[in-house]
Design brief:
Strand content: under 5%
Number of helices: 10
CATH class: Mainly Alpha
CATH superfamily: MetI-like
Oligomer: single chain
Radius of gyration: 20 Å
Distance between the termini: 48 Å
Number of strands: 0
CATH topology: MetI-like fold
Helix content: over 70%
CATH architecture: Orthogonal Bundle
């Protein structure tokens, strides 16, 4: 085993894993914080919805589509000045979180919008008939009914962020992706590459398993 993994520094692997988890956790929190209200806004102002407004809907929809279509590796580079202005650095975990959030928020918002569209319209109409306010409709009807879909959306977004954190290693963000690039690719240390890939696969599997169980737990069907 030592011969097969001769180049693997397990302490470096451990530090890189912690950095990946920190990037994932920090960016996921901010992504949900910004993406959930954006998704609700897109849903409410969308066609045939409570506050349908074609012109108003077009603005956040266009911005969301533009950011979603921009390759993440390009977004990383374009956002370096903004990232430095926000965090004071473009390197490490702190330097990776802003582009991760900007890249994942539109993706998550669209998934939230889709989840809300799957809510039975009869539930919304019944809530309106009882004289509920907009706030009550959102928090007592829409979000609770769409909770399984939102949890699934969060799971998919978290897995997407794992791949984004790996790409962030290209610009010195740290984590398993950075380790794979610097040692596995640039120094041709295949054993390091294999270990980092296996750890990323394991992380994705853990996230997916937890997400699936939460969806089943909160599903009312």
């Amino acid at each position: 085993m030592e011969t097969l993994l001769a180049n693997v520094d397990w302490y470096e692997i451990w530090l890189a894993t912690l950095e990946t988890l920190m990037m994932l956790g920090g960016s996921l929190v901010f992504t949900v914080f910004f993406g959930l209200p954006l998704g609700v806004l897109l849903f409410l102002t969308g066609p045939k919805q409570l506050f349908a407004h074609k012109s108003f809907y077009a603005v956040p929809s266009l911005v969301t589509n533009i950011l979603r279509s921009l390759p993440f590796i390009i977004l990383l580079i374009v956002m370096i000045p903004v990232t430095v202005m926000i965090t004071g650095t473009s390197l490490g975990v702190a330097g990776a979180i802003p582009p991760l959030v900007v890249g994942a928020t539109p993706f998550f918002a669209r998934l939230v919008e889709t989840s809300l569209r799957e809510v039975d319209r009869g539930i919304i109409e019944a809530t309106q008939a009882m004289g509920a306010t907009t706030k009550q409709i959102i928090f007592n009807a829409l979000l609770p009914e769409a909770r399984p879909g939102i949890i699934a959306a969060t799971t998919v977004t978290a897995i997407t962020l794992v791949s984004y954190t790996a790409m962030a290693g290209v610009v010195g963000a740290g984590g398993l992706g950075d380790l794979a690039i610097r040692f596995g690719y640039q120094r041709f240390q295949t054993d390091v590459m294999v270990v980092t890939v296996l750890l990323l696969l394991l992380l994705v599997q853990i996230i997916q398993t937890i997400g699936d169980r939460l969806v089943v737990h909160y599903s009312r069907k």
